[in-house]
Amino acid sequence: MNFQLILFVAVIVTAIAYILDIIYFKPQRKKHAKLLVKQYDSQMALWQRENIKAEIVQTKDEIKEEAMRQPWWLEFTAGLFPVILIVFILRSFIAEPFKIPSGSMMPTLLPGDFILVSKYHYGLRIPILNKKILSLNSPAKGDIVVFRFPKDENIDYIKRVVGIGGDKIEYKDKKLFINDKPLDYQRMPDYYNDESVSYNKQFSEVLGSLQHHILNDDRRPSYVINPDDFPFSSNCNYNETGFVCKVPANNYFVMGDNRDNSQDSRYWGFVPDKNIVGKAFFIWLNVTNFARVGFIH
Question: Are residue 163 and residue 74 in the same domain, yes or no?
């Protein structure tokens, strides 16, 4: 379900109710309140002339306040318009929250991490249409990006960019080479994987200017099993040790940090620039581990 589309429809519906309330319903309530106040004043004057003592159930201000109160259906439409509009603007142009559903980005991101994704870092896009209207930065090698899955754009994926347009990406015996240059790897202590209840080899990897950690599973082969047929698949050559791919212009090659447990560009191809949603930059909650809150590297 496209939540952004639902939110956009909610903005339109509540905006219409908000405008109608300003130009029609609120003036009608004011007119009715004025009439009730006039009747109240007349009643008080009559009682005073005839020296009638009666219990006053409501004051003039209470009568006016009750008459001006929005009916329930306007409270849940026009009354919510400012809040829904602010949420829509924040999610569309500032930052959008996501929840990590799987372990493909371990050890950097864990299942259950709630993250924020910058919607403006790479430029501004028209909501729903996702058309870029202002370019700021381009995804760089090492960035963790959220994007619309090329094979089903209703699904959002999160991976790390390892190659940009024009790069030659080679994956050989579980090591990355970019433009024929090997990345710098350092062995780290083994990582205990809660999902598989086992230990994985852990390495630090320097990608671009960023150092991060990756995982390898000795039980998995380095070659790609049954890659899909995808646009520009002729740019890739698969072999028994891995693959070599040339990244097309305006496309990105992405991989998970949990290298042997990630469905990524190795299997389903390149990510077009138009599919980029934003850059992941902050973990704001993990209900089982509050220590994980902080910036993403």
Answer: no
Which residues have C-beta within 8 Å of that of residue 153, sequence separation ≥ 6?
Answer: 275
- Estimate the share of the chain in helix, then strand, then coil, as percent rounded to the nearest 5: 30, 35, 35
Query: Is the pLDDT at 1 greater than 80, yes or no?
Result: no
| pLDDT tens-digit map of 7-64 | 999 999 999 999 999 999 999 999 999 999 999 999 999 988 888 887 878 898 999 9
Chain-centre distance for alpha carbon 284: 13
- Does 36 share its domain with 136? no
C-beta neighbour count of 69 within 10 angstroms: 12
Residue 181 annotated in active site: no
Domain of residue 42: give its range: 3-88
Catalytic residue, chosen from 119, 159, 174, 279, is 159
The tokens describing 57, both together, are 């159930």
Alpha helix ranges (H) inside the chain: 3-20, 26-49, 60-68, 72-75, 81-89, 265-268
DSSP label of 258: B
Instruction: Classify residue 200 by burial, with Cβ atoms within 10 Å: 0-12, 13-18, 19+.
Output: buried
Q: Within a domain: residue 95?
A: no
Length of the chain equals 297
Closest CA to 167 of 139, 146, 141, 144: 141
283: β partners:
115, 294
Q: Say whether both 143 and 16 belong to one domain.
A: no
Is 159 among the catalytic positions?
Answer: yes
Out of 104, 118, 262, 265, the active site residue is 104
Asked if the bond preceding 107 is cis, omega within 30° of 0, the reply is yes
Q: In 3-state terms, what secondary structure has residue 241? A: coil
| Residues 205 and 73 both lie in one domain | no
